[in-house]
Structures are given as C-alpha cells and as structure tokens.
Amino acid sequence: MRFLTAFRLLLLGLWLGAAAFFIVMAQNAFAILPSHELAGTLVSRTLAILNYSGLGAAFVLVLTSLIVPAGTNKAALWTERILLVIFGLGCAVGQFVISWWLLLIRTEMGRPIDEVAADDPLKIQFNQLHQYSEWVMITAMTAALLAFVIMSVRKPPAPKKAGLGDFDFQKQFKI
Fold first, then answer.
1. pLDDT digits over 135-157, tens only?
2. Domain presence at residue 129
3. Cβ of 72: how many Cβ atoms within 10 Å?
4. Which domain holds residue 45?
5. Distance of CA 132 to the CA centre of its chain
6. What is the average per-residue pLDDT within 6-17?
C-alpha cells in the first residue's frame, strides 16, 4: 500500500508542478514573443497537454482510490475522490468546452486577435471565455492540491492485534 500511495502522490505532484510551470510559461510567452497570436498558439498547445495529462491522472487516481485497506477513514477517502473528480472535470471542461469555444471565436474573428478592436463583441466574448478558463484551471489546481494534502496526511489503518481467540494451538505446537 505504501508504494501505491507514493505512486499516487507522485502522479498528482507531477501534474501540480506542471500546472505551476504552465502559469509561469504562459505569462512569459506573452511577455517575450513578438505577437499575442504566437503566444496564444504556444499557450493553447501547452494547455492541451496539461489538460489531457490531468484527465489521465484523474482517471488513474480515481481508479486506484478503489484499492484501500480495511479500516481507512471513509469520509477522507470520499472527500479525496470527489476532489479528484472535480480535478478531472476541470481539465475536461477546460479542454473540451472552453478551449473549443475560444478556437471557434478566434476562427470567426478572421484576423489576429491584436488587430481586433477592444469593443468588438467577439473580442469581449473571447476575453470572458478566457477568464472562465482561468477560473476552471484554478478550480482544478485547488482540487488537486487539496486531494494531494488528504492523500499525504492519511494515516494507514492500525494493524489488527491478535487476541487469544486468534491463537492457533495446532500451528504453534504441531498437534
């Protein structure tokens, strides 16, 4: 069980580290690259990798949460599972709903986003969806972090103590 717990913590920790790195990378991409179009393309592709890996990690983590020793705190276990589902749903909504809408709006604009007026309805809608994307990512990261904390502080169930009723005289004295 210790190996499984360590594997689960590693998987979730790797995703959280990648998400933190993504935030820094996205900010730097928009600061350094010559156009927002290039930066947006880089960030979109990197975000897709992060979302797909988050979906995979959430799936594996929920499945492995079904392997628990007897005596595990059920409330903490179900809280962890719910947080992992929220984490996976956040990645799915970010990738399959919001990113898809953003791509449709960018395609409908027909020109680089830097050339679109700030009061253009498509640009306003794009900016709102971008804000939603940030909120969904923050929600997924928060759920993943809370699940990580719950997994890491969980104490293994106490070993079963043998009583006199469990003592096997035939084994001990070879009768």
1. 999 999 999 999 999 999 987 76
2. yes
3. 15
4. 2-154
5. 16
6. 97
